[in-house]
Amino acid sequence: xxxxxxxxxxxxxxxxxxxxxxxxxxxxxxxxxxxxxxxxxxxxxxxxxxxxxxxxxxxxxxxxxxxxxxxxxxxxxxxxxxxxxxxxxxxxxxxxxxxxxxxxxxxxxxxxxxxxxxxxxxxxxxxxxxxxxxxxxxxxxxxxxxxxxxxxxxxxxxxxxxxxxxxxxxxxxxxxxxxxxxxxxxxxx
Length: 189
Ligand code: SIN
Hints:
Oligomer: single chain
Bound molecules: succinic acid
């Protein structure tokens, strides 16, 4: 699959302009909210884990030196917490551009913090996209992140802002927090 998924996403989930759709964000969509929305609520999805296994050529890295950003990996019993936004359908054009580096819109069930449920969309970068980097241990990922930067800023800023946003939501993510601890040690070295 091409690493520019914009056109593919525009063809998926044909939406009418007056549709209102829940978007589940689990990475930068939690803390970098540069799109209009009608309502936001903390939420989670089941059966997925957040992992820094996706390459970033257009935001936190370059073609020559990609950064590492999060995607979702299927894992039985896992729960991934994040933020849900109710958006008007035309906003997906802007979101599809932002998430074009390998992410595909996928329909998902989500549970809000009060237990209510809804169906919505989330962006997932699957292992068959060209920008996918795959598994590495948290120490290796931290070193990779410390050596990358792109048009949206340094790669470590993405991780540190995500870790802070998760803490503010009262969420614990061992993978993210372990990488954060390594990065803070590398910074002090
Ligand atoms: C997301 O935040 O939900 C997708 C990944 C990202 O844009 O960082």
